[in-house]
Amino acid sequence: MKPYTAHARAAALSALAYRGNFLLSLGGAAVQLIALLAVWKVLLADGQVGGFDWPHMRAYLVVAFASATLVGTFVDFRMSHRIRSGLVALDLVKPVDYQRARFAETAGGVWIEAVAVIVVVAITVAIGGALDTPPGPMLGLFAASIVLIVPLKFAVSYLSTLACFWTENFVGVLWARQALTGLLSGALVPLAFFPGWLATTAQWSPFAGLTSTPALIFIGQASGTHAVLLVATQLGWVLVMWYGARLLFRRGLRRLTVNGG
Amino acid sequence: MALVEARQLTKVFRRPDKDPGMRGAVKHLFVRRFVDKTAVDHVDLSIDAGEAVAYVGPNGAGKSTTVKLLSGILQPTSGEVRIDGLSPQKDRIAVSHRIGVLFGQRTQLWWDLPVSESLAVLRDVYGIDHGTYRRRMARFEEVLELGEVLPVLGRKLSLGQRMRADLAAALLHAPPVVYLDEPTIGLDLAVKDRVRQFFRTVRDEGTTVMLTSHDLGDIEGFCRRLVIIDEGRIIFDGDLEAVKDAFARERILNVQTETVVPLEAARAALPGAAIEAGETPLHLGVRFDRFTMTAGHVVSALAPLANLVDFNVDEPSIEDVIRRVYSGELVLQP
């Protein structure tokens, strides 16, 4: 375990080195949150859309902001850089598991994002009033699903960075993935607004766990067995992608060419 | 059994074969053609514990690829590698404790953390206890003057500082086998000297070292064994001093004369030697075999043709020998 806590600690320390970048991108995300809040407040001024009234939508957007901020794009760039630059070569001569080490780094860097989320949520509450929280057991389930965002998002990012073994280019892969996750996770609009077939597909895809699941549990639209099932789906996808990534990594290594030096 | 063993080691890379320009690039999207390039071609190599081996060859000869195969970074197309009886590809974790790798062109230090933090991560990665860690750090301080580098952030290191820190990082776990791939590239003379001094202490402690370098100064006085690779094949594997003795037979006497000596006249006076024009018409180079001719002989043969103003003798270094091997002028028999 010690090799991995060491990676997590180093990543936690180096997160501070990027605070400037981080604060700027956080500012961008906060502006987006304010804009969405303003738009939906007007749209929901008198009544409901797709089963959401204003207090629900406000809570949904706040949770969506939190889940978008945790495990940011920086993780993608850091991991893809390792492969494209050939640094992965040096990781392979160390007594550590490559995937676990990358996960430890990701988890280590989360604290700064968590702090930022807490600050932004506190400001939102201070301005717009308290958010309704779900009853005790559902709050626990909500917390579990927020925590699961970290390994889930890591797995999605890690898998897409492995594409670098084949494409030797990452930005295109990242854009495609962001478009897909933005839509299917419910970060753009709640999945309930989609046509039935798309909503169902999205709900059971690995992406729903990134935004929709914690948000729906928080606002009480998913509760009881349904909520447990959604969280179990998150966990299931984490496991499937974790082990799938191992297979893919092994295949990728066969493609590895490290030129020069 | 040898500590490092490669049998029939082969690595073939597949590269896209594109016609030049936009047309070629577009065509490649539809008709994919690839060419195979054999970077390492049936290499047999066996290194005993405590040996210091120089692994040299021209650019693109397959040196770095061999090192990456021997350390388990690349998967061989065919053939196999054994380090202490283990396969670096299959027993990756076990082998990683036994090898240290330095790639001069890459760094394993954390970009935005002080060097001391990068080394602390490695301490935990290799499970080195604090007492041993302190002892090794003290030694690095002694030979590499690492202390001044420790508080510096990875991205702010000068090349010399970076290389010293990376050396410490590669050797922190005291591996019995060390691969040094271009370890002095881009360093100034003072740092180079210090780094070479450090290599000698590492070797004297019994570490097996395989050193890849274009700078043959890294090799002389350090490696006893010389392996030359060209186009993926080992073309020489033998004793470095023996090569020097065999091919350092040749001497060049550079002469400056008071009046111009025509090349033909000099050639007629010295039938056993090769005469070359020097930098000015007043300079001559006489290339001769020291076993059939002496410098005194050359001087006395030239003296009747003109007054000699100055002369000096060039001894070929191992560098010249290897340069001639690369160019195909010289074929070494192991």
From TrEMBL, chain A:
The keyword Transmembrane helix belongs to this UniProt entry's keyword annotation: yes
One protein family per Pfam: ABC2_membrane_6
Segments passing through the bilayer: 21-40, 60-77, 110-131, 143-167, 179-198, 218-245
Signal peptide: none
Record's keyword terms, sorted: Membrane, Transmembrane, Transmembrane helix
Listed name of the protein: ABC transporter permease
UniProt source species: Dactylosporangium siamense
UniProtKB/TrEMBL annotation, chain B:
The protein's name in its UniProt record: ABC transporter ATP-binding protein
Keywords from the named record: Antibiotic resistance, ATP-binding, Nucleotide-binding, Transport
A cellular component annotation (GO) from this entry: plasma membrane
PANTHER family for the chain: ABC TRANSPORTER ATP-BINDING PROTEIN, ABC-TRANSPORT PROTEIN, ATP-BINDING COMPONENT
Single GO term (MF): ATP binding
InterPro entries reported for this sequence: AAA+_ATPase, ABC_transporter-like_ATP-bd, ABC_transporter-like_CS, ABC_transporter_ATP-binding, P-loop_NTPase
Subcellular location field: Cell membrane
Gene3D superfamilies: P-loop containing nucleotide triphosphate hydrolases (3.40.50.300)
Pfam family, one: ABC_tran
Species this protein is from: Dactylosporangium siamense
GO terms under biological process: response to antibiotic
Domain ABC transporter, residue spans: 24-256
Domain of life: Bacteria
